[in-house]
Hints:
- This protein is an alpha/beta fold.
- The chain contains 15 helices and 15 strands.
- The protein has helices at 76-83, 88-93, 98-107, 110-126, 142-159, 181-198, 216-228, 245-251, 265-273, 282-287, 296-301, 322-331, 337-343, 346-352, 379-382; strands at 4-12, 22-31, 34-40, 50-60, 62-64, 129-135, 163-170, 204-209, 235-237, 256-259, 277-280, 306-308, 369-372, 389-394, 397-400.
- Strand 7 (163-170), helix 6 and strand 8 form a beta-alpha-beta unit.
- Helix 6 packs parallel to helix 7.
- The longest helix is centred in the middle third of the chain and has 18 residues, at 142-159.
- The mean pLDDT is 97.
Amino acid sequence: MFDTVFTNLHAATMRDSADFGIINNAAIGVTDGKITYIGPDAGIATQDNVIDLDGAWVTPALIDCHTHLVYAGSRADEFERRLQGESYADIAASGGGILSTVRATRAASDDALYEQMTARFTHLFREGVFGIEIKSGYGLDLASEGKMLRAATRLRDELGVPVQRTFLGAHAVPPEFNGNADAYVDYICDIMLPALAAENLIDAVDAFCEKIAFSAQQVEKIFTAAQKLSLPVKLHAEQLSDCGGTETAARFCALSSDHLEYTNETAIKAMAEAQMTAVLLPGAFYYLREKQLPPVDLFRRHGVPMAIATDHNPGTSPILSPLAILNMACTLFRLTPVEAIAGMTRNAAKALGWQKRMGTIDTGMDAHLAVWNISHPRDLCYTLGGRPCRAMITGGLYNPFE
Ligand code: DI6
Ligand code: FE
């Protein structure tokens, strides 16, 4: 009747935000890679191909909805410089920061980039992730941005991982356009975006709206070009200051606005109106020792769903542990455990426009699930370390860890 049935498990379906959508003593039936039964163990007929999960907890696979997973090089030297008092902005202004990773990424071969990215993905997978957004933005020219997006495409096509490939040409102004950000924005809109879209390498378009990066007016130009190509947009906004990015993003009905520590209530109302998701990134907040918290109560009050992601990148969030990020979302940003886990499942799916496919355990959804040795779903936020992920179920296939 089913291709596989998983029994003897407790499910945190995440269908209900009050109580993790818990179903104790549950079973999950899978057919053709989709969930075709979720309910009481007792309600499912016996058949072949039954996998007994021995009382483990099952959640939707975690979705990392904001990452910069493709890059070469390390920025551990800048980590040390910041510890000695230099700021992220000072280091960027002196030619380090994003541009240091651009130099290393441009110099790397296609295979080296792919292998380093895949190794990083393996760490995320080992902690429950199957479903990821991957940004370009360390190439900043046509050949190198294409190289990054092709690496992300290979992860999708060779390993079957759900990947959203996001073009982040507007991450920094490259050396060729030094002092001429407007000319670089024209190059993005007129050359890179159309060429990479024609090669079918782009699923979404992002930009970094910040004093040290691009203005809201420049973002508007890029979003207009994206809209002409029918590509959804999203924005790095209000991470270090409020430059009006989120209000611009809302006018384009962006999928999400990300970071948001310095956003304001007017912008949040615009997000609610445009049905956007707020993507919160506690890893960057932690590494930069930021003080200004994102306005979590205002997101709650205005009904803006909150997603949580690693923001994995070599500068401000070199973290490959989604579970550490869940913990930080609670300890640093004061999210409740159910909000944090919804932020990496249901709301992360929404941030990518994937809510009809992934993010909850429900019939019709892709059978991408994480299996945990825990005694309650809140444990995923509570402990650090301990390797609680026992197995991953990907498209209904059972992949146990050792
Ligand atoms: N905000 C961030 O935190 C990352 N990108 C961005 O726009 C940092 C990227 C880096 O420093 O390499
Ligand atoms: Fe980022």
